[in-house]
Amino acid sequence: MKKVLFMSLLMVLIFTGYGVASKEVTIKGFRYWSSETYTRVVVDVNGPVKFTRNRLSNPARLFFDLKNCRLPKDITPSIPIGDGILKNVRAGQFNTETVRVVLDLQEIENFNVFLLKDPYRLVIDVFGKKKPEPVSEIKKGKGLREIRIVVIDPGHGGRDPGAIGPQGLLEKDVVLSVSKKLGNILRKKYGMKVIYTRKRDVFIPLEERTAIANSKKADLFISIHANASRQKRVRGIETYILNWTTNREAMRVAARENAISYKKMQQAQSDVQMILQDLARDNKKDESMRLAYNVQSSVVNTLRQDYSKIVNLGVKQALFYVLVGAEMPSILVEISFISNYAEEKRLAKKTYREKIAEAIAEGVKYYISPLKFVKKTSDSI
Length: 381
Ligand SMILES: [Zn+2]
Description:
Elements: H1 2-18, E1 25-34, E2 38-45, E3 51-56, E4 61-67, E5 69-70, E6 78-80, E7 86-95, E8 98-105, E9 110-116, E10 121-127, H2 135-140, E11 149-154, H3 171-188, E12 193-196, H4 206-215, E13 220-227, E14 237-242, H5 248-258, H6 262-271, H7 273-279, H8 285-306, E15 312-318, E16 330-337, H9 341-347, H10 350-368
Parallel strand pairs: 1-5, 11-12, 11-13, 13-16, 14-15
Antiparallel strand pairs: 1-2, 2-10, 3-4, 4-8, 6-7, 7-8, 9-10, 14-16
The structure holds zinc ion.
């Protein structure tokens, strides 16, 4: 039921966010990431596309009819997968204006589908059957030894610079540097396996980032970003989890990180408010929230030891596409405002970046060892 609502949410987001397709759309290709429990298939298209989704048995398959769409002859129409969830993906020109994309199923639990833009692509998440977690594990929470794999996601990259500071500092460079430092600490100090969604200045689409985390069966997903505001005086640190929100500033931040306009974000939010409430119970919300609080308070407390005017903006919720579909506790940290002159200056310095990386790692440690909860600061977070 939850998944159905979640799927409806995404469908509404698609139609409110991207409007009605009118021009003929062409298929550009197919991509996929897979593991034993999860497969994400991406259909690249050259414009906004309307589609329907269907599930059939005998043989078991999902199919998506893409309207006003054309499949060029040079595109390979069938890709074998055979990962235990999907047998293969195939496509055909069903009639003059419909392309049918078929996913032949092995064993699945659920699926989600949504459309992203810049460039346009249809993302299909297919979830396989999961083994239930032993009760003792759930009660105890995962210990330090059980949290083995952390995916660190430095925001933006390549042709997407992210936010740009008044002195020209680029978000993509700052977050890559902090991410690498964080990865080194988690690896060396805590013996964790660290996987980066990018290690270089390269463009990685949002859907690929979550797909990497799911297909590598990561235990945690941490996306690192630097914040920006049109009001240059705004400064501070905030940590997000995936959820709906009525907070204007949170929506503005998510709109920027999702590369959609605030207006589209606003419209999508108001249209799906009822459905979105159910999202609160999905997506490992409680664990993500606990991780977010631990990281947020660790960063604020650590920086306050050495720096003045560290503003605690708290833990917030918003619809970040990069977190949609993540199967593990996942957060997005906005490490400071690159748009603020003083914070840009700090972000340009190695010592500040190191402090932030150390503090995020500490936060992860506190999250893993619940007995060592950080003391709450006087601020409400
Ligand atoms: Zn960003």
